[in-house]
Backbone:
DNA sequence: ATCTTGACTTCGG
DNA sequence: TCCGAAGCCAAGA
């Protein structure tokens, strides 16, 4: 597998039990501007049997994006570590994880972007 | 170099 | 809330 994907796996490996992160979140931490889709690609090729907590990676808004039957497995794994999943989504506000030392290239979102994200979070919580 | 393929995200209706 | 379209990115062929 290529080097870039390795970085994704390294990060995923650090997600603690009971916490989750999103594809875009990973991309941001790695300094990739719009690499969410690429992270998804990496996860699709996720090396099996290596104890990677792949189930802690969710779509924007804490949504479960995987199709059956894998999606069901993911929900089971999440619930098995105390993470509630209702209507196919997890409460990101409470469960989202951020490492202490993110990649230096990771930028803080602009004020406008932050406002927009909040609006989205609000509507999806509805 | 070009095209396809996703475990993606956001916006508009 | 749900759906489709468009934008994006890197790996593979």
Residues:
């Amino acid at each position: 597998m290529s080097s870039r994907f390795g970085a994704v796996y390294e990060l995923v490996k650090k997600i603690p039990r009971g916490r989750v992160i999103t594809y875009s979140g990973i991309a941001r931490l790695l300094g990739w501007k719009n690499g969410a889709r690429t992270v998804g690609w990496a996860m699709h090729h996720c090396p099996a049997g290596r104890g990677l907590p792949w189930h802690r990676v969710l779509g924007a808004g804490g949504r479960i994006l995987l199709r059956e039957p894998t999606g069901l497995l993911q929900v089971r794994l999440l619930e098995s570590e105390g993470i509630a999943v209702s209507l196919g989504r997890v409460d990101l506000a409470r469960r989202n994880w951020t490492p202490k030392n993110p990649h230096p290239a990771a930028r803080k979102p602009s004020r406008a972007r932050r406002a927009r994200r909040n609006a989205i979070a609000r509507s999806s919580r509805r």
Remarks:
- Residues 22-24, 27, 34-44, 46, 54, 57-61, 64-67, 70-71, 74, 116, 120 of chain A lie near DNA strand B (CB under 10 Å from a C1').
- The helical segments of chain A are 3-14, 23-29, 36-44, 70-80, 92-95, 111-125.
